[in-house]
Amino acid sequence: MGTLTPTFGSIKPSQSQQLLQTNYLQFNTGTGKDFAQQYLPEIYEQEVERYGNRTLSGFLRMVGAEMPMTSDQVIWSEQNRLHIAYDACTNTSGTNTIGIPVGGTAIDGTLIENVVSPGQTVVLLDALGAELKAVVTSSHPNNGNVVVAPYTAADTSSLAATGVKMFVYGSEFGKGSQTSNWDGSAGAITGTTNISIDPTFTQYSNSPIIIRNQYTINGSDMSQIGWVEVATEDGTSGYLWYLKAESETRLRFEDYLEMSVVEGELAAAGSQALTDGFKGTQGLFAAIADRGNVEVAFSGANLDDFDAILANLDTQGAIEENMLFLNRATSLEIDDMLAGVSAGAQGGTAFGLFENSEEMALNLGFSGFRRGSYDFYKTDWKYLNDASTRGANAGVASIEGVLVPAGTSTVYDQILGTNIRRPFLHVRYRASQTEDRRMKSWLTGSAGGAFTSSLDAMEVNFLSERCLVVQAANNFVLFKGV
């Protein structure tokens, strides 16, 4: 009589995207840790969620909004400063002439022009602390030379020859004066001729990128039942392993929707990405580094660091309420800073509500504080702590947090042609009456309910087209390590 020897193969469990023959317990290893014995082992069917909630998105939902767009590009314009001021002027004390560097490029990217009129009063400052106040007697719109008459001196010799800052603070005219508008003629203007100032704006733009992903499983593997119960962050459950793989692909893609506009980078001229046809998009970190403020060596934060930030914010939009999104180390350093504000004072500082109860928990954390005229609300940003993303890096290139102004800004929308109020930080996605590309998902193939082709598989497709708009980036701060 013949002997039938069944062959089972190697089928030990593994974390895989789908059920294969290697995903089952062996029954005949003889090691005592399988089913080759008469005793039933105690089996935990549910996975242990050892990393907790693994999703990272949610930052933009807290601080911004999502709005549709119908173009390949979003363009917006931001206001420039209101008052007239010039840096890096020259001083010729023999003729009391202040030279404005006309033809150069201002900080906001506009061309520097001389718009100082005769009769206006100016403040002149140099890097050594010298100061003069004067009235303008002559101004040359073309070459930028402004002749002044100091109020407290005969000439401008008390000022340095270079690096002079000048700003207009008013004007002075005699009785019965009459002003006339400059007609654009060459040469210096004197008397009561006035230069009319047409405001300029600074224009910015960004373009969306298409983000895609796909999960595929063949029809045979869809029918396999596993012994491990599926459990994911979005509530998916059951004993079909492909459900877990499809769910995790979706969760990963939803995180990519945020991560791609946070980390996004424009393809620079001469880059390989641009050569290969990729354009990129400007993300949050890149926008702040390009148009905002970068605070380096923020580790070991103290009040002096914040005072320096406040002084810089005062020169910008001075938004009163700001959100701090920080990694764990920086958040704890700020807690320590606030806890030690008056630790050396008599009796120390009591923070939190204790009521002198021995059972009352001691709260050593702070969710916000006020310094000067600014309010800061602090929270941890999971993306900066997760070991699979920014949390894995420390040192020179590390990003320790961002300061995001709360509220909205007013800008001119080039597409709509009107002034609009939008959150400083918001996402634009492609959409129209017939197509919405905010977050698309669809099935193809011939399995799992899809009947679109002869492919014996289920293909789950994900797609989005979006970009981030960072308005008034001069009010943002990026904290970096050393």
Task: Explain what you see.
- The relative contact order is 0.16.
- The chain is built from eight helices and 26 strands.
- Strands 3-4-7-6-5-8 form a six-stranded antiparallel barrel.
- Helices cover 15% and strands 30% of the residues.
- It folds into three domains: 1-43, no CATH class; 55-80 and 200-343 and 364-482; 82-174 and 193-198, Thrombin, subunit H (Beta Barrel).
- The longest helix has 23 residues, at 241-263.
- It has helices spanning 59-63, 219-222, 241-263, 272-275, 284-291, 303-314, 328-339, 382-385; strands spanning 66-69, 74-79, 85-92, 97-99, 120-125, 131-139, 145-150, 164-171, 180-181, 189-190, 193-194, 201-206, 209-218, 230-231, 237-238, 293-296, 321-326, 368-371, 374-380, 399-405, 408-413, 418-423, 425-430, 440-445, 457-470, 477-480.
- It is α+β, with helices and mostly antiparallel strands and 482 residues long.
- The chain starts with 58 loop residues before the first helix and ends with a strand.
